[in-house]
Amino acid sequence: MVELLAEPIRRYIHNKGWESLRSIQAAAIQHILADDRNYILESRTASGKTEAAFLPILSRVSFKTPGVKVLYISPLIALINDQFTRIEELCEYLDVPVTKWHGEAKRSLKEKLIRDPEGVLLITPESLEAMFCNAPQHIPHLFGTLDYVVIDEIHSFLGTDRGVQLQSLLSRLPLTAKCQYKVVGLSATIGDHAAVKQMTGNAANTAVLRDPTGKEIDAEFKYFPDEGAELPLDLLKDLYSNTKDNKVLIFPNSRGRAEEIAVKLNKISDRVGGHHNYFSHHSSVDREVREYVEEFAKSNQRYPFAISCTSTLELGIDIGSVDKVVQVDATNSIASLIQRVGRSGRKDGTTSMLLFYATEPWSLIQSLACFSLYREKFVEPIGNNQYAYDILLHQILSTVKQLSGCSFEALQERMSVNYAFAEIKPAAVTAIVKHLLQLDLLELIGGELIIGVEGERMVNARDFYAVFKTDPNYKVVHADRPIGEIPLTSIIVVDENIFLAARIWKVVDIDEKSKKITVIPAKDGKKPKFSGGGMDVNVRVRERMLELLMTGSAWSELDKSAADVLAEYRKMFGKYAIEDLKYDRPVTEKGGSCIVYTFQGSGVNRAIAFVLQQMKPGFVTTLVEEDSTFHFSCDFKTVESTLTAALANLAQVDAYLTEAIAANPGGMVNAKWGVYLPPVLQKELLKATRYDFDGAGAFLANVRLVRHTDH
C-alpha cells in the first residue's frame, strides 16, 4: 500500500524506519485513496489511527490553492497539543503548515492563518462555535476549499450534547463556506456503528474500517473493605508495593480520590525511601502542571512513575507506554474501561496489565460485570440524542448571532436542513423561538429576529460556546503561583485542607470577587476533604451483575478477599429461586420493610423512582443507585401492589412531568440550555435523556418479585 502514497509521504515512512504498515493503516490507504466515501477507522489504542487517516488524506489532497484543506477536530485541547507535533512532523515533508486554534493557542498564528489560509487546522468544537458566532466572515475564506474533516476520538461525542453541537456545526459549515468535504472519524471503541455513521451527516455514504485485533490482558482483582471516607491504608500499601517499580496510570472515579491516592502514595514512598514520581492529572490541575506530567511520562525512559488521573488521560494523549493500569472501584462503562486498558501494553508483543481494587462488595461485582462484558467485546449502545431540544435552542441563538439577524422563515429553513436535528419537527423550532422572544433572548424587529437584550449578555459570554454545564471555577494559588482551578463547593472553606496537584494545601483565603483561593502547604495533619460523583450505568452491566451472582463461574483473577466476597454474595443470592434472569428480581423482607433489587440501568431506576414519588404512597421509598435497589417501608404484598400501580401510573407520566416542572421551574432539567426551553419541550427532553419510561414499563410489566426460599 505504501506505493499508493505521495512521494513525500513515502519518504516520511522510510525515514521513520517503519518495516510495515499497521492493519488499519493499510486498509485506510486502500479505501480513502479509492473513493469519496466517509470513513470511520476503529482500531485499538496505539495502533496508528492518526497516521492511518493522514497518510492517505495528505497524499490525496492538493495544497496548491488557498484555504484550509484538512480540519482536525478534537474533544480536548490537550489532545490537540499532543497531536500537533505528530501531524506537523508529517506535514513538513509536504511543506504544509499546521495551525492550532483554541483558547490557549497563540493569537498571532491564528491571525496569520486568516491572512493566508492554508494547510491543516486543529480545533475544538467550542472554538469552531466561537468562530461562527464572532467571526463568521472568516469561515468562507478559511474553509471554502475544505476537503476533509478528521474527528478524533469520535466515540467521545456519541450520545452527548457536544456531539449534537458538533454535528450541527459541521452541517452549518457547507452552508456558510460553500464547501463539500469528506469525514474520517477515529476511535478505539465503538458500540454502535449505525450511530457513529450518523455523525458524518451521510450514513449511507459512510463505511467502517475495523481492525478487531486485541491485546492479551493480565487482570487481577483485589478487595479491601471500606473503612470510611478515605481509602483503606492496607489498600494503599498494597497499591504501592504493586506499582512502585513500574510506570503506572491509576484511575479512580473522582478528582478528589485521584488527589488522595497521589498524596498518600507519595507519603508511603517517602517513608520507605522510594521514588517521588507521584502525580495527579485532571481538569482542576493547572495546565502547565498537567503538561509537565504528560511530558515527563512521555520522555522518561528509565524511572518508574504513577499518575493518578481521571478521564483526562483516558483519551489518546500520548504519554508513551505504561506497564500497568489500575482501576480503583468500578468503572461505570465498558467503553471507559476499553480506553483505560488500552494505555497499558502498547508495544507490540506486550500484555496489558490491569489491576482492580474494590472497597465495597457491589463495586467488586460491578467491576467483574464490566470486565466480563469487555472480554465479550460488548460496548454500551449510545444514549438517545435525536431530540436534543436544548442544543437546538443553543444553535438557534448561535445562528441568529452568526447572521446578525434573520427572518423566522430563513431560520426555520436552516434548522430544517441541519442534520443534527433531522428527527425534530418544525413545530419545535416555532415553540422555541416564541419562548425565546418571551424571555427577551430574541427580539423581533421589522420581521427580523435579532439577539434580544438578555440574549446579548448570554451569547457574548465566553461560556456560550460550550454546551456542557460547568461550575464556576476558582483559581487556586500559592505564593502567586497557580496550582489549579476548582469549583467552590461547600467543603472548600478557610482553614480546611484540600488535595490538589498531588499535595495537601490549607485554604487561607477565598476571594469571591476575583474567584481566587489562596493556599499554603498544609502541615497540621488535618485530613483533607474531597467530593466526587457517579455516572449512569447501562442495563446490560446490571443484568450481568445478577448473572454473576446466580452462576458459579470461576474467577482465577480474584485474590482471596475478593473471592470470599463473591462467594458470600453468591450464597446470599442463592437463597432466591431465580428462574428468569431477565425479569425475576430478589426481594429482602425484614421487620415490615423490603429491599427490591432491580438490576436495571440508571434511566429505568430513575423512571420508576419518579413515578413512585408522584404517586405519593403513604410510606417511604428510596432509590439507592449504587446497588440498584429500592427500599420500601412496607411489607412484600404492599410492594407488589405498589409496583403494579406504578405500571398503571406510567400512563400519567406526561401529567406528572408537567406538574413537576411547574413546581420546580428550571430545576428539573439539569442541561445547561434546557432551562430556557418552554415547559412542554423540557418535558420531552427529560423523557429523551434522563428517564427511560419505556424501559421502566417493560420491566414493571414482566417483573416477578422473589423472596428468600426459606420465608
Structural class: alpha/beta
Question: How many DSSP-defined strands?
Answer: 25
Low-pLDDT stretches are none
Return Rg in Å.
27 Å
Whole-number mean pLDDT:
90
Tally of helical segments: 25
Can you put this structure into words, describing what you see?
The protein is of the alpha/beta class. The strands form 5 sheets. A 7-stranded parallel beta sheet has the order 3-4-2-5-6-1-7, with helices on both faces. Strands 8-13-12-9-11-10 form a 6-stranded parallel beta sheet. Strands 17-16-20-19-18 form a 5-stranded mixed beta sheet. α3 packs across α4, α16 (408-416) crosses α17 and α23 crosses α24 (679-689). The protein is globular, with a radius of gyration of 27 Å. The relative contact order is 0.08.
Q: Which properties best describe this structure?
A:
711 residues; seven-stranded parallel sheet; six-stranded parallel sheet
Secondary-structure topology with pairs:
Elements: H1 7-16, H2 23-32, E1 38-42, H3 49-60, E2 70-73, H4 77-92, E3 98-101, H5 107-115, E4 120-123, H6 125-134, H7 138-143, E5 148-151, H8 161-177, E6 182-187, H9 193-198, E7 206-210, E8 217-223, H10 233-243, E9 247-251, H11 255-272, E10 278-281, H12 287-299, E11 305-309, E12 324-328, H13 334-341, E13 352-358, H14 361-375, H15 389-403, H16 408-416, H17 426-438, E14 442-445, E15 448-451, H18 453-459, E16 473-478, E17 481-487, E18 497-500, E19 503-511, E20 516-521, H19 539-550, H20 560-573, E21 584-590, E22 593-597, H21 602-615, E23 621-624, E24 629-632, H22 636-649, H23 653-663, H24 679-689, H25 693-702, E25 704-706
Parallel strand pairs: 1-6, 1-7, 2-4, 2-5, 3-4, 5-6, 8-13, 9-11, 9-12, 10-11, 12-13, 16-20, 21-25
Antiparallel strand pairs: 14-15, 16-17, 18-19, 19-20, 21-22, 22-24, 23-24
Helix pairs in contact: 2-3, 3-4, 6-8, 6-15, 10-11, 13-14, 14-19, 15-17, 16-17, 21-22, 21-25, 22-25, 23-24
